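Lecture 7 notes. Example A: sequence first, then its structure tokens.
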Amino acid sequence: MTTKYVPEPFRIKMVETIKMLSREEREQKIAEAKYNVFNLRGEDVYVDLLTDSGTGAMSQEQWAGIMRGDESYAGASSYFKLLNAGKDIFDYEYIQPVHQGRAAEKVLFGLLMGEGEFSISNMFFDTTRAHVELAGARAIDCVVPEAGDPTLRAPFKGNMDVEKLEKLILEHGAEKIALVIMTITNNSAGGQPVSIQNMRDTAAICKKYGIRLCIDAARYAENAFFIKQREEEFKDKSIKEIIREMFSYGEMFTMSAKKDSIVNIGGLIGIKNDGDLYQQIKGRTISYEGYITYGGLAGRDLEALAIGLYEGLDEDYLRYRIGQMEYLAGRLDEAGITYQAPVGGHGVFVDAKAMLPHIPYYEYPGQALALELYKEAGIRSCDIGSYMLGNDPDTGEQLHAKFEFTRLAIPRRVYTQAHLDIVADALIAISKRADSVKGYRITWEPPVLRHFQASLEPIK
């Protein structure tokens, strides 16, 4: 059966020129970048799937909002539009803008956790894990076992393992668990969704032991779309109704608005009703981000974000958005290439360990496949595996990741079917010569979030 592509629910009225370097040029560029895709210049990339964060195309309404943005230092009208949008969608009393998701984590986590404490998540992404550790605590992953088998097609592979969660709380002591974090969708597990029922069950355990529950809400709309598709109770609910239900079980949220809100910069902290905590957040926002009514953003960014929060809820757009992932995944199915299935909300997570079984985790198969994709067709992707996971913060030993993925993160409203076909064709070509792909070693690395800066070399 031929894989079908969902047509774009928009027309294109502006274009950006991109170019394909020759194979020889690409090999030279990646060597000069010390085999780190983050060191590549954007102009030397043909199809850029490094991240879906801040890389989407804004709408004509958002661009019009850019011109209307109020640049008052304090009390800008754009700030109040954003507050109203956040309160309306999430039904939280307090909304604080910041410049991106990791800023939200820096402002919030330092208030909630410290030395000798733990934070448990359905699965931490790299920057969230780093901010837990920078606050002095330690991060523990607690995703359901189904997520560990990329070939298993389960509807909610991003869920928290609630039985394991309770065991971890009892093992470490409830007083030592500073925060439970539910990531929606679960990025490190392959962009996999979390069900409302799992959110209810997790919230009940947190309430039982008096532990705060925070939502990492970067891809809240994509998660809601999966719930509407897969959770019978919500098949007739609107995306907004599903979001309100899900967020009702949390006490706070952090958000990189550069994903589902389709802006190039921006983030949010939401607090349901804890006024004392919000006062502390305001103080830290002033110290780290600027004044509370702009939170490190220009007024035009606040305006575009207020509009984007609503645009991300449109079901026609979400159907197309998830449809792009399903199309690319369908091409890989036809070629017998394994990925985290069913496909996630913001990207296709190719199982590099399955394609490159001869490369051990400490030679970074996810990174090796990412580098091969750039050399093959100018495609930039990234490792979601042991290379990204890094070293144990206490022992310095290389950690062994649960997955060795190469993530193909699809920017929103940017690429067409032809671009996705180039990606699929490149992966198919690499799979046919997979035995010849070599692993890599790190020649230099920083102590935290190494994958952004590390230098590597191929193993001879």
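Example B, a different protein, same format:
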Amino acid sequence: MYVSDQDRAKAFYTQKLGFAERMDAPMGPDSRWVELAPGSGETSLVLMKPSEAMPGYDLARSMIGTWATFIFAVADINATYKELTARGVEFQDAPSQQPWGWWATIKDPDGNVIGLHSD
């Protein structure tokens, strides 16, 4: 996930969403490898700050504040909505029943939109 400020994004994902830190290591003069994981899952999320030295810098920068390329599956979307709203997480769309299940979207501090789904 491309972000403009790794510290701010890390605080959001750990303090508001409850992710665990797996790694926070330097990658260069202006960037770090910040890897977080939701719960006890094996999947992790890397919060990457684009740097001018990286290939595809302009594309990476343009992806900040857009739709994420993943969604989070949650057990109970209405309970998750209440819990995350109480923690100050901004919902772009409140939970609603759709033909494929329950759906909602949240925004991180950069405006990246992430889908939440439950059956």
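Note on Example B: Helices lie at 6-16, 57-63, 77-86. The chain has a mean pLDDT of 94.
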